[in-house]
Amino acid sequence: MRVCFLIPDGVGIRNYLYSPILPILNAAGAEIVIWHGLDPEVIIQSKKLHVGLFPGEFPFVNHREDPIAQLLRDSVSYARLSLNSRKLANPTIMDNWLPKKTTKGKVSNFVAALLGKTIKSDKQIIAVENIVKSKNRKSDAYFRYKKELENINPDILFCTHQRMPNAGIAMLAAQDLGIKTVAAIFSWDNLPKGRLPVRADDYLVWSAYMKDELAIYFPNIDQQRVHIVGTPQFDFYKNPEVFQSREEFAGSNGLDPHKHWVCFSGDDSLTSPHDPLYLNDLAENLKAHRNIQILFRPVPVEGHHRYVDILEKHPNIVLMQPKWKHGKMWNTFFPYYEDIAVLVNLARHSAAVINVGSTMALDFAQFDKPGLYVNYDVKPDHPWSVKRTYQFQHFRTMDGLNPVGWINSPEEIESKIIQAIEHPYQVGPDRNKWKEKIVFEEEGILASQKIADWLTQLQNSKQ
After folding, report:
1. What is the pTM of this model?
2. Which is nearest to 331 in space by CA: 148, 152, 166, 137?
3. Domain spanning 2-64+139-231+443-462: which superfamily?
4. How far apart are CA 89 and CA 107, in angstroms?
5. What is the CATH number of domain 236-438?
6. Between the CA of residue 295 and those of 269, 273, 350, 351, what are the distances in Å?
7. What is the DSSP letter of 370?
8. How far apart are CA 130 and CA 275, in angstroms?
9. What's the average pLDDT block by block, 10 residues per block, for the chain (463 residues)?
10. CATH 3.40.50.2000 domain position(s) in the chain
């Protein structure tokens, strides 16, 4: 079995190039090749981690998309967001129609939205998508990818991220060559965003909840081709090889092992523009507690430039700089393997995590640690509001559950943090039920193993 991992950008690195899936597949007799658009240093890192696993690597180049196909694809995206916002009675789904910055992009978005408003049903969406496929089959990108796939000659093409348009064209070329195609849905909040240019024969999802979502948002996808396998994202939290003792972790990061640690994890400036103010509120309300250190992990793709003044002002904050290499665009950033150990031990040894609606609450739940979501506005007249954030569709996974603690005002910060430290099971007591709803995990079996077993069965059924 020759499995080609299509990794068009940095999003799939941690889950697939650093996870155990490659050695597991290799042990099962699979030949692994990588088709990627990554910094060569990523491959060097992965080869050091998994010695001898890549018989071949091939460059994945983003070719210019047919402009008509791109416009129609954007129109479908707008139409799908509009349709799904009506289906689910959630207007925040339209917030995923992101603005473009250039004049050309703004004009393109305007025209795409106008066209999208004329597409009213799933049937019409599918009809336009078929036109996009037809246009793509005539594009230069399609013929280039087809030629490259004939050279790579895989039995299975596995795309690690469902959102890249060029990857969608490559997958179309593979299907036309008779190559089995598989796509993994990358994250728990991806499906409501309406962007699925990568179409595959089979889809791998995190949970039954995500499978049900896929049926709602993309009803033309055969549910028998959607498979629940979990995600390799959380396999690292089950690997004792990356665990450090509290003293070791403190020594390597300049921390006091005798103090309580709480983690504030930052979001990007679009998701949470007021994070510096929230971090300042946290530090102000805990400064009398000299036995508490705030471990601040900024979002890796932006760094900590927004927080410099806050860090200088508050010595009770320790900057935990992510071990990432920065690129020119967010999708060209990538983590070093060492960052995984930092993240795992941060969750393992901190008492709680505080942020605005971040996935980090799920990371901490891996060690049954509470998450606290900030739930108050600091600038009521600002167009961004934390209240709207928690109306986003993926937070409906919380319905009927009490999975996180809520900090509803600066005055609540101190008491909520002390409660999380002293009585963690009183804060978000349903966090494990929430985690199990979002992520399917089987006792003693890694998601990487489940994916590798599934790929092996797929190949055997094909023969």
Report:
1. 0.94
2. 166
3. Glycogen Phosphorylase B; (3.40.50.2000)
4. 29
5. 3.40.50.2000
6. 19, 20, 8, 11
7. -
8. 42
9. 90 89 93 91 88 88 92 95 96 91 90 96 95 96 97 96 90 97 94 90 97 95 96 95 97 97 95 96 96 96 92 96 79 84 97 96 97 96 95 97 98 98 98 97 94 90 65
10. 2-64+139-231+443-462, 236-438
